[in-house]
Amino acid sequence: MRLLHAPASPFSAKVRMAAIRCDVAFDEQVVVDTVSEPADLLDANPLGKIPTVLLDDGTALYDSRVICEYFDRISGNAIVPQTDAEWIADRRLEATADGVADAAILLLYEARFRPEEKRHEAWTDRQWRKALRGLAVLETLIGEVSRKPTLGDLSVAALTGWLALRFAGRWEAEHPRLARWNEEFWAAHPDLDAVKSRV
Fold it and tell me: Within 10 Å of residue 88's Cβ, how many Cβ atoms?
């Protein structure tokens, strides 16, 4: 099994953490630059996005949710709760965390790839408001750090670890519970800390 990923990507971090929790081993982890559109990535994923996983038979899985659900499936539900109430709560955590990451990544790309004179402030402000609304919801939803994190927990950890890397000082004061949870999560799970978002 091969993983195509980027070390700074929150979605790659989520998949790598899920693999650890589900006891899934990659034969190879390949760092790819999506901007250069490498052939091995495009051959596996027509969208040219990471993370992408290539199974032993050559089947490609992409989108972090699909990959993580596959890992959960083959591990006998190691990270996704199965009772209705717990499943709903966990899926909500993941969807909210992923949505915040999506909005914040658009802000990052706007600054990185669009010339300053062509940037649209009203659009970037809208994305940041979306991210802040999602963080406010996560502030109310997040519980205590668990010894056995669920997929929702991993999604939040991937997000907050990435925000600490890319948006340090812009979200913590308004979301103290979430900022504290972020610190406690990585301290409680050093095995997962090794694969969190890094430059």
Answer: 11
pLDDT at 181 over 80: yes
CB distance 25 to 35 below 8 Å: no
What phi-psi label fits residue 55: left (phi over 0), alpha (psi between -120 and 50 degrees) or beta? Answer: beta
Contacts of 165 (CB under 8 A, 6+ apart): 8, 197, 198, 199
Q: Which residue has the tokens 């990451």?
A: 101
The answer on pLDDT for 29 being more than 90 is yes
Q: Is the pLDDT of residue 199 over 80?
A: no
Q: Which long-range contacts (CB under 8 A, 24 or more apart) does 101-110 make?
A: 101/10, 101/11, 101/158, 101/159, 101/162, 103/127, 103/128, 103/130, 103/131, 103/134, 104/128, 104/131, 104/162, 104/163, 104/166, 104/167, 105/10, 107/131, 108/166
* Helix 10-21 × helix 151-166 angle, to 10°: 140
Q: CB–CB of 141/88 below 8 Å?
A: no
What pLDDT is attached to residue 62? Answer: 97
Q: Torsions phi, psi of 55, nearest 5?
A: -75, 170
61 within 8 A of 15, measured Cβ to Cβ: no
Give the mean pLDDT of the chain: 95
Query: Residue 140's pLDDT band (boundaries 50, 70, 90)?
Result: very high
Residue 65 · residue 55 · CB < 8 Å: no
